[in-house]
Amino acid sequence: MKKYLFLFLWALLGCQQQQASQGTKKMAIIVSTLNNPWFVFLAEKAAAKAQSLGYETKIFDSQNNTALETDHFENAIVSGYQAILFNPTDSDGSVSNVLKAKDAGIPVFCMDREVNNPAAATAQILSDSFSGSVAIASYFVKQLHKKGKYVEILGLVGDNNTWARSKGFHSVVDNYPQLEMVAQQSADFDRNKAMEVMESILQAHPNIDAVFCGNDAMAMGAYQALAGVGKAKQVKVFGFDGADDVVTAIKDGKITATGMQFPQTMAEMAAVFADQYLKGKRDFAQKIPVAVELVNAATIEDYTAFGKK
Amino acid sequence: MTISLTKEKLYKLQSLIALLVLCTAISLLSDKFLTLANGWNVLRQISVNICISVGMTLIVLTAGIDLSVGSVLALAGAVAAGLLKNGIALEGLNLFVGFTLLGALLAGLLVGGLLGWLNGWVVTQCKVPPFVATLAMLTMARGFTMLWTKGFPISNLGANFDYLGTGWLLGVPVPVWISAWVVGIAWLLTSKTPLGRYIYAIGGNESAARLSGINIHRAKRIVYTIGGVLAALGGLMVTARLDSAQPNAGTGYELDAIAAVVIGGTSLSGGRGSIWGTVLGAIIIGVLNNGLVLLNVSPFWQQVVKGLVILLAVMIDRMNAKND
Q1: Whether pLDDT at A158 is above 80
Q2: Is any Cβ of chain B less than 8 angstroms from the Cβ of A154?
Q3: Which among B33, B37, B249 has CB closest to A192?
Q4: Which has fewest Cβ within 10 Å: A74, A102, B14, B90?
Q5: Is A37 on the interface with B (CB under 8 A)?
Q6: Distances (CA, A) of A33 to A64, A68, A234
Q7: Within 10 A of B17 (CB to CB), how many other CB atoms are there?
């Protein structure tokens, strides 16, 4: 019996070896973090698309750590991945990693965030955070009738998305002198911190008209703080991302608007591009912006979490 | 005699004095600080940290440390939320088990206790230093949380669950009740029970404690288990407060807990310190967080200020320890 089992295993191993020698097609998916549903969704959609195109995939989690990302690139290069679908931890810090892959002849396709070197990645499919927050800001101004007091809750202060969103927002809102920002605080993209920060801000500024949050988790936290003191009806809350909870909250009239990003579109486009590259295509646009769409109660029916219906 | 007595009293009161100075300073700068509503805010916000820090105090008193509390908190919250919302399907047995609210809460606490016990087991049986053992648990428990939630929050848990984090009882927020009970029980444990004496003895001098017949391994396992249960309790409160179990909940909470313990005058080398000190430490951190936001201090500066306060507290503590 044991002998047969041994033979069976041997045969199985033999098969696998043969397959490997034929050259399995593999794509590596390296994402900045899996500690956030948005990036989990991005990574899973990229993997699903690559698999449907006939590739084996592996997801690497850089844990927001550029040094760990370097290790992942080295491992991916050594283990023979033919393409890398990449979501960088840092627009400057990640450049050398991408160049390393390029030197090894492996194409890199950036998703959502860019690296600041046009010669590094084969193509970059980018979420347009800046113009997305400009769209939110225009709606924000309209909703407040160009005047009132508001609070801004920032994401992680060391994250470039935090500032892209904040700058886009202020590029519009700061043109209206009667819109006064009474507090600007960070809540690290975290729902609980946003709730606590908002509770404290409400003590200092009980009469505000709106809150702009750098992501949807914080928008939910801010909303809960407002609901806790019975002010959810008077204060308009704006988020960014298009996460599940906020899509529901916009339907229920709890949150005013969010910027819907399209992680699935970006992820699938990156996988398709990589496939095309490996089949010989070489002319890719360096940067492909993917719009961030304003979603409010009027348009919410067309959308679902992280995308269009 | 009188001099040493006043000195000792001052030493015991140092955290309280620091808190009073801090409160006075903030209330001079903002008239919104000393209000009843803000007081409840601060107390409600620190109740999670108090639960965790009380457990951390017991562990630190034995000269140990628990870095896994934040991840254990996230896992316990996620387990309770997931079981309450979706139940669990045992596919092999073709069986579906639904959970009542109480069942889900107990399951969350059980998970915390189990992981805490594992920490204690690894520390005592495998002789792994607590720092390393609980660091490993920090990573593993976060991984289990991701596996359990698949990386997505579990939301909309119902008003009954949320009561634990957002409700009021006799004019006091429910989380404040819970943390007050935790503090009371832990105080009784440390000051009135044999286990309490063992904890101090182990931290003071482990060999002496062992030679005097204390089962130090058992005592340590109990202490780590309590730490795990309290982290889980904190997890249930965070989850209830947000009406959502976030997969990344509790990230960095171990640092807040250790800061509370240290600011409260508990020695990281064990044997010296108190539950009340830790409570004051947690209040100081809570007041600081609240005050910096009330004054709209830039988020960059907030981190610097918090670091300085921790440093200052430890430096004063060191000076006192030398004078003793």
Answers
A1: no
A2: yes
A3: B249
A4: B90
A5: yes
A6: 5, 11, 36
A7: 12
Which residues make beta-bridge pairs with A83? A27
Please list every residue in chain A whose beta carbon sits closer than 8 Å to the beta carbon of residue B238. Answer: 192
The torsion angle over the Cα atoms of residues B112, B114, B120 and B125, rounded to 10 degrees, is -160
The owner of tokens 């990693």 is A97
CA-based nearest distance A16→chain B, Å: 28
Q: How large a percentage of chain A has pLDDT more than 90?
A: 63
β-strand partners of B244: B155
Please report, as a single letter, which amino acid is at residue B150. Answer: K
A73's CB contacts (< 8 A; 6+ apart) are A30, A84, A97, A98, A100, A101
**Distance separating alpha carbons of residues A293 and B193, to the nearest angstrom:** 62
Size of the A and B interface in Cβ pairs below 8 Å = 85
- Does this complex have an ipTM over 0.85? no
User: How many Cβ atoms sit within 10 Å of the Cβ of residue A90?
Assistant: 20
User: Which pLDDT tens digit goes with each residue over B217-240?
Assistant: 999 999 999 999 999 999 999 999
* Cα angle A42-A46-A49, degrees, rounded to a multiple of 5: 140
* SS3 state of residue A120: coil
**What confidence tens digit (pLDDT) does each residue in A241-290 have?**
998 889 999 999 999 999 999 999 999 999 999 999 999 988 898 889 99
Predicted TM-score (pTM) above 0.90: no
A221: helix, coil or strand? Answer: helix
What distance in Å separates the CA atoms of residue A9 and residue A217, rounded to the nearest whole number? 49
SS3 (DSSP) at A126: strand
Check whether B28 has a pLDDT greater than 80. yes
Which residue in B144, B219, B152 sits closest to A191, CA to CA? B152
Q: Which of A190, A200, A217 comes nearest B290 by C-beta?
A: A200
Predicted local confidence at residue A16, as pLDDT: 46
